């Protein structure tokens, strides 16, 4: 992966990399950083993480926290993506803000979960939040962080936050 990213960067391609943060040691090993580095957050507490992610090992939440700390020091554009699932993880925006503050990202992207792929077998169609619901939750996170809404796309159900 590192060699492939290096090749893309050498040829002046933009490289986006998304991680769930469960392998902090791999993040630390990266020599060729992507143009945009995303870390996805689907939970704001260990209990929620266990309930929503069904981790295979008991220490994965701690690895996510470690990744957030590492993320804060990376010299590239850093984005925290909060995947919003209605009736599951759209609670306690202030707890998301605490985690996001660990990472010190350039941007926060709040995006609705969509009923596609394998997750559509685990979640109900009704758990897709509307754009308005995502926007309201994003605003609550922004208020807790001291960020502001920079942009949004209703048809994608996504809201982008940036530092004031």
| Beta-strand segment tally | 6
**Integer-rounded radius of gyration:** 16 Å
End-to-end separation in angstroms reads 34 Å
**Roughly how much helix do the residues carry, as a percent range?**
25-40%
Please report the number of helical segments: 6
* Strand order across the largest sheet: 1-2-3-4-6-5
Q: Give the overall shape, derived from the CA principal axes.
A: globular
Largest sheet: 6 strands, mixed
Low-confidence stretches: none
| Backbone structural class | alpha/beta
Query: Please, what is the oligomeric state?
Result: single chain
Mean pLDDT over all positions: 93
Strand content: 15-25%
- N-to-C SSE series? HEHEHHEHEHEE
Keywords:
37% helix; 164 residues; 6 strands; 23% strand; globular; alpha/beta; single chain
Brief overview, please?
With 164 residues, this protein is of the alpha/beta class. The protein has helices spanning 2-10, 24-29, 46-53, 60-71, 93-103, 131-145; strands at 16-19, 36-41, 77-84, 107-112, 147-153, 158-163.
Characterize the structure shown.
With 164 residues, the chain is α/β, with parallel strands linked by helices. Helix content is 37%, strand content 23%. A six-stranded mixed β-sheet has the order 1-2-3-4-6-5, covered by helices on one side. β5 and β6 (158-163) form a beta hairpin. α4 (60-71) packs across α5 (93-103) and α5 packs across α6. The N and C termini lie far apart (34 Å).
